[in-house]
Amino acid sequence: xxxxxxxxxxxxxxxxxxxxxxxxxxxxxxxxxxxxxxxxxxxxxxxxxxxxxxxxxxxxxxxxxxxxxxxxxxxxxxxxxxxxxxxxxxxxxxxxxxxxxxxxxxxxxxxxxxxxxxxxxxxxxxxxxxxxxxxxxxxxxxxxxxxxxxxxxxxxxxxxxxxxxxxxxxxxxxxxxxxxxxxxxxxxxxxxxxxxxxxxxxxxxxxxxxxxxxxxxxxxxxxxxxxxxxx
Length: 231
Ligand code: SF4
Fold this sequence. Notes:
8 helices, 32% helix
């Protein structure tokens, strides 16, 4: 699974669930604001954990936690993700998967086997700005396919956007609304300018609260619940 990091306990990564967080190495994007550059780039200096030791660790902790969060990097790129998720499910723990949504073919397998309980998909910005913010030429249509699969399989999911000044504006949320349509949960995340992959963003000031509140009001026109994280 290429697990490159473990956070023993988290109270914030899985809604209403105390969790252990597993970080996979490697990502198909290079978001300018990424705070996990060493994970995204699969830095060989990062520790690597075998599936066996991670599963043993989860078995030992299952009386202390309710779930496991698998994040990255981009976990759907990890070879062997399906058998690994099958093993995690055998522990009886709930599973949350964080993904950028660009691998609907993997998501489809995961969903059809009911291997996850909750999914978070990043919506980085409007489709037009994706190539600049994420340095990818991958099509936004792939994310739309992923969202369609989530709706089809009736799995609980959230969409989330880190509000990077200049790259995420009210016009971008209009573009997102036009593509994504109505959803249940949408989270806005405050931008943090520390340790960004692109150094030029380290001098960019996060939006003031009132701007985030105005985004929240707009997002509530297409999301039943919209909350802000990181304020
Ligand atoms: S999707 Fe973007 S923010 Fe997430 S790990 Fe990859 S490069 Fe970093």
